């Protein structure tokens, strides 16, 4: 088996293990612990050692992992990679119960900018965090993952909506309640969850108090295409980048000071205690750096690469791209540019990345959104503004971004990991500016 095949097998497994940000962080922590990383408690004093490998978690959905290199931190600076753990989905409402015509349904909220039509007629599992009271009256929490299909959103038959193929706007309030079961009884959603938790080994659940649960597509990640050219999966945006950054970190040079930050809440603006617009990364880094002068010296020698998927040129909709900036799948990572700072790339950081790609014999592409279209954004500009670090935005080209199932090239994630591994080992990030 080739190195790329092993990498993709690991990526597919990670995607299947990570139906929610909570599960994604849990899956990352297992890999970090296996590699010798130690957990740090922000409530305690830290005693960091040269060569030490550590991680900090907040809310169970965001993580900062870092390696304390053997070199001088102020002189060398940090090599950082940022990604996000969340993806658009359908979240269960606090009081979701709907009893209509003998069917038990649950109401959902749309999290992020989801492409809604593909959610219909899918086998849906349910996963997330549940908070409960145990038999001793203690507050507890656990992760739940119901991998079997427990829900679906049936489409309306074409016979009852003859214009469905011409125009079909989705009303999230009216059209998206999920069918769970058929019953004449008034089912209680929290009671169903308590019963399910008991079957999964949580026998001490006395009462479910609250939850953060999301529906997800039960179909597993897979290599697809006649020659296996593509990876198809839910949540490629942006768990693919989380996995790429993690693998690069695990393979990084022990002499370097390296950081991987994977934040929650990017898809809804990042403005939270654990989002990229919050204080998490800065507070961890300042604690490592020490006094203010050390912090400023370190940041002046540091760099951040924000890794978040890019829009590959769709062969059926090529007119949605600028003709000179249509990235192809399996043609290398994409440098993302925007003059209005929706991406944080500048000519210096992009030049450094191009040289890294050249040294690794990895092709590189560029993306600029059409001048008459709005541009999305990433954690890159937010991080750059918050801590004043030079930043680059890159990503793997994909199709169907924000759909329930997205598509990427089977070579691109592996190639980006090679480049980020080399970046982590850079002695200097001097971009000549």
Structure description:
The chain has 433 residues and is α/β, with parallel strands linked by helices. The protein folds into two domains: 3-86 and 234-424, Zn peptidases (Aminopeptidase, 3-Layer(aba) Sandwich), CATH 3.40.630; 89-217, Aminopeptidase i, Domain 2 (Roll). Helices cover 27% and strands 29% of the residues. It is built from eleven helices and 20 strands. The chain has helices spanning 3-17, 21-34, 73-76, 172-175, 189-199, 236-250, 280-289, 292-300, 347-359, 379-387, 412-424, and strands at 38-39, 53-58, 62-67, 78-84, 89-100, 103-111, 124-134, 139-151, 178-182, 205-217, 222-224, 230-233, 257-263, 303-307, 310-311, 334-337, 365-368, 390-395, 397-399, 406-409. The strands form three sheets. It has a nine-stranded mixed beta sheet, with helices on both faces. Strands 8-7-10-5-6-9 form a six-stranded antiparallel beta sheet, with helices on both faces. The radius of gyration is 22 Å and the shape is globular. The model has no long low-confidence stretch (mean pLDDT 95).
The gross shape turns out to be: globular
Measured between the Cα atoms of the first and last residue, the distance is: 43 Å
Helix content: 25-40%
When the domains are counted, the total is 2
The level-1 CATH class of the largest domain: Alpha Beta
Q: Using DSSP, what is the number of strands?
A: 20
Low-confidence stretches: none
What's the architecture of the largest domain in CATH terms?
3-Layer(aba) Sandwich
Biggest beta sheet attributes: 9 strands, mixed
Strand order of the largest sheet: 1-2-3-13-4-14-18-16-17
